[in-house]
Amino acid sequence: MIARMRSRTKTxxxxxxxxSFRQKDNGGGNESESDHDxxxxxxxxxxxxxxxxxxxxxxxxxxxxPGVFLGPYSAASRSKLQSLLDHGITxxxxxxxxxxxxLIKPNxxxxxxYLVLEIAxxxxxNIIQHFKKVKAFIDEALNLGGRVLIHGNAxxxxxxxxxxxxxxxxxxxxxxxxxxxxxxxxxxxxxxxGFMIQLREYEPIYQAEKTLRNEQQSSEVQRSKRTIHQIEMxxxxxxxxxxxxxx
Length: 247
Hints:
This protein is of the alpha/beta class. It is built from 6 helices and 5 strands. A 5-stranded mixed sheet has the order 1-2-5-3-4, covered by helices on one side. Strand 1 (62-65) and strand 2 (68-71) form a beta hairpin. The N and C termini lie far apart (110 Å).
C-alpha cells in the first residue's frame, strides 16, 4: 500500500514538473523565450537551458551561468569524477548539515578545491551569512579560468539559495528575476521559506554595498584628479620661479 502511494506521488511530481516546465517554456508562465528578450533583466552571459525537464534531470548538475553549476550530491559522488573533469570543474562548494557529514563530504580533495559549509535546511537557519564567502569562492575560481559546482544533498534548497544570492549580486538582479533565471536551468529548485525571506532581505543589502563602493571609487577618482592638478600647478609655479631666477 505504501509502495503504491509513493509510486503515485512520484508519478504526479514528474507529471507536474513536465507540465509546469512546458508552460514556462511556451510562455504560459509569462516567461520570455530567452533571458535577453526580457527588458527588465540586464544582459547576462547566456547559457542554453534544457528544452524539456524530466524528473531524472534533478540527479544531474546544470550550468546556471557560465562556469557555475548547481546540482545534487550525486553529481559529485565517487562515481562522477570523470564527469566532473569532463565539465571542467575545478572548485566545489559542498553544503551539508552536521549530521550529514558522514554521507555528504568531499570525495576528491586532491582533484578539486573545496569549500565545505555546515548549513541545515531549516527555515531558521542563518544562510545569509554564507553569501559573501560563496561569492568570493566562485569569483576566485572563475578569475582563475575554473568552473564551480555548488551542491547540497538534493540541489534544491540550500545550494540553490547560495546560487541565487550569487546570481543576484553578480548580475544585479532582483530575487524574483534571479529565481526565474536559475529555475529555467534547474527547474526543481525550491529553497525553503526562511531562505527565500533572507534572499529578499539580501537584495537591498548588496545594492547598498554597491552604491557605497561606487561612491568611494568616485571619491578616490576625484582625489586623484585633485592630486594631479596640484602637481601640475606646483610644476608651473616651480617653472615660474626658475624663469625668474634665470632672467
